[in-house]
Amino acid sequence: MPIPSPVPVLQGERGTELRSTGEELLLRRPDAELRIPYAAIARVHAERRRVSVELTAPAAARPTVYRIADVSAAAAVVFADAVNAELPERAAGETVDGATLVVTRNLVVDDDAAEETDNEDDVPVGLPSWNAGPTYACYGVVAALAVVVGLADGNWARGIATLLLGEFGVGATLFALALAVLVGKDLYLPRYGIVVAAQQVFRDGDTTNAFTATDGVTRHIIGHDKGRPVRVAYHPRNPMNAVVLSTGTRGKVGEVVLLVVVLALTGLVDYGVYRLAVPAFL
Prior knowledge:
5 helices; elongated; five-stranded antiparallel beta sheet; alpha+beta; six-stranded mixed beta sheet
């Protein structure tokens, strides 16, 4: 049974991550992934909540330095000491330019190239969007109901209350329905869909998660995962119907509890509109 490495994994700001693989450092940023072999490293410095990886450089040349900020101060010290202890010994006068040994993998998707590529598509993940027409129609119906209530009851205070509470009720109802769809997808797709690993990339000015479905199309789902591995579940017959999986049972329970609370509050609001409007017609 392999023994896990005692070198901590550093989690920094904006999903930046620095880890050791035993022979190299892997620096992961939202826009790029850098592999820094130990032979290219002169020293790793821990500076409170910041770690700096200084590369080797020829004499009189300024060395390249990679930094990761907002990490655990305790983990930074352990990480620096562990990596420095594993660095290879160098002969006196050795002048290797460590920057030439670093391998960089770009994670940024060029917007112009993405528009010209047929095998890439965008998958919006989150609360479903609604058509403006039906939404405005619902608000219009509530406004008309408020006017009728005011005229029928002769009490415009009741009509105004119906208008305010009713418009809020429409928004709350649409939000509750959208949340119900999202929670339903999060519960249904992991069991009956296809689950794949996603790759964090930087696209359109935001952090997204890229996954490839069985049709060979690479799609991008918005989601901030702070550099952690992400899984995506999608419908086998409709990969556009996809969702970023929440981590663990606790996340799913939290979603269900939130949905129940939102539905209960929405029901109270809608019932209040009913209690305001109906007496005007009796």
